[in-house]
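dumping this here before i forget
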Amino acid sequence: MGTGSSTRGQSIAVRPVQSATINDKGVKQQLSSTPIIPPKQPENHTIYSVEGTQKQSIEKEENAMNSTKDEITKGDNTAPATTDLSTEDKTVEKTPRSDGDQKDQPAETGVSKSAVKSASEEQEEHDDTATKSEEKTKTVLTEEDIEVLKTQAFKSVEKNLAILSDIEGHLRENGLFNQDFKRATFNLQSANFALKKASFEVNKNFKEELGDVIVELGGVKTVCDVVVFCQKKGYYSAEDKLIQGIWIPLINCTIVLINFTDGSPKYAPLLAEHGEFLSSVSEALQQMQTKHLENNIREKDQKLLESYLSIIHNMAQSETTVTELRDHGFVELHLPFLKSSNDKVLLTCLATLADLVDESQAKHLETDGEFFKFLLKFLKSAISDKHRRCKGWSARELARTIRRISKNDVNKKGLVSQGCLPVLVSLTESAYEDEQIEAFGALWMLSFDKENQDVILQDDSVMGSLLKNRTSQCKKIKNSCNGALWNMREKLSSIAKYKELGKEFRRDEQEKAPSVGEGRGHVMISYQWANQPLIKKIRDSLQENGIKCWMDIDDMQGSTLNAMARAVERADIVLICYSKKYYDSPNCRAEAEYAFTLKKPMIPLKMERNYQAREWLGFILGSKLFFEFTDKYPFESKMSALIKEVLTRQKKSVPDKPIISHTAPVTTEKKETMGSKPKVKAQASEVVKNWKENDVLRWINHHKLPSSKFSSLTGMEIAFLQVLRQESPDFFYKTLNEMLKIKDLPTLAKFAFALEDTLV
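structure:
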């Protein structure tokens, strides 16, 4: 792993942060009750600060600028106050530095993935002290207090984003930002902590609302603009002196983006849509990579590197940004960091790559098992920690990383051989359902490997956990347990104590399988949910040509597993609608492998451009002729060819011109006719019907609509409002007024005009 300036193994004593005074309303009563279960901390709520305040740093930098000095000042980044710095009498949190690496910490980020945190591997002293401190100082905020603090935070965000949107207007003659601009970046990132004294749920909801406000105000672009500008400008002088007039805005804005992508993950794609942000981050990481790996990197460069890695990690957890990140080369960019001697950097990169690598790149995570040992060591520590954390990473996050790594077959055996099963079983007994979900999900993934099945079947603790929870009230846990047992159904019958369970699965197959000579069945469509709108369109076109189809949104009855098995068994053709997301899904794999086992005729439909099926999926599809349903070809031509192929296999008559569906309605709906309406608008409405959540958010952001009012709308609802506005304007405006509570004319006008422009 390397040595040098590694922080691995060092024990850093961190004292609990003293609570800042919010206002007189903040303290209502003291709590001293003891929780029934361990006091699990929010996944991204560990806060650190250093001696001095950033406000003082800004003032010192101002004085330094007046004397033409651009030198580093002590404590240039510290814990933020909870209100705007422009007011007076602030009480700011302080904590003495525990070692040199914590000097000049950025303002508190509260982000577990960021190596900005410096929690020790052995956190007992900190945890004990923090728990006692919480019992003594924790306060209850009334609903009135919460609303006041939220309002103050939202107003502060609006004010400070307005300042940051004018980059050129806040530059001095020497090319550095003025004091107002630096304060604005500090205040903006401080807003994230306005409700840190509130409960976990209240704080979580607030951060989601804060994300809505930032998006509504166009803040994502504004903050990304500042980061890109500062990165291009450079934060070191020719004499290698830190230029704080650039550094402070840069590091504060990266902190804003870390907390934003963590608190509002649904908005992560907006960063990818910025014209220069990903390219700027990629270039910066490339420049810092060698110095970091040689343990010869400047302190501020290291902080920025860690912040950028944290942002990319948060973005990688959003499936809609994975392709964008891969296209920008972040897989290749992260791979060298696997040689880092810094635990936090290594862990962040491992977790990011777990989301980004495809089947051909998964081998980079295997090596000699050292990465798996490293990851399991962290997970063990988090499980034994009373706050369920290790170096800022929660047990859930670490288990998720294991689950994501195990999706690739090349890693399945390695994880089990390094002892992941006992650790995962321990997590299945957690008091927290989110941890259980990740643990059982990982076990399901691992159970697809035949050798792993033998190990699992011989492990009473693993089998006991799967059997105990196969009837869980949690659908995800139940599905994972039954999925793992289903994978092992053939071997269960040969083991005495599991023989009855094996017979149960085998009996289901035999009873449901259609007899020889039975009438032809349906076309079963196996797909991943991300492609559902297009799949529904394909299904409708097939059905309009007399082809009976099955897809789970129509015929789901009983358990997911039984419904899937019955659908495959009664099908005479199975359409495999494949993509990377299909490959990653254990449900999809179970369907495809079962169809392959039953020797069902399969027709592959390629749903992702340039995707190549490998490993188990490549084995199943082989060299079969596939139909590509991407933007590479017109839908009509491929759909016509597919219809002819299916009808030919079913030995039915093939029409010269098959009927092609141009809409994607649910089967029970009647098609709307647009009469004499312009064709382009009708087509736009049909496109809008299929919008996913991210499409809606992009449209809202493009037209600067208040997301707090419109983000809950679906594509189908927006398309309906388009039609309603044309067919019944009076009812349209009544709907906006009564159902969406839109009463002000500016918002009505913006929304009405936005409906005219949905081609974004």
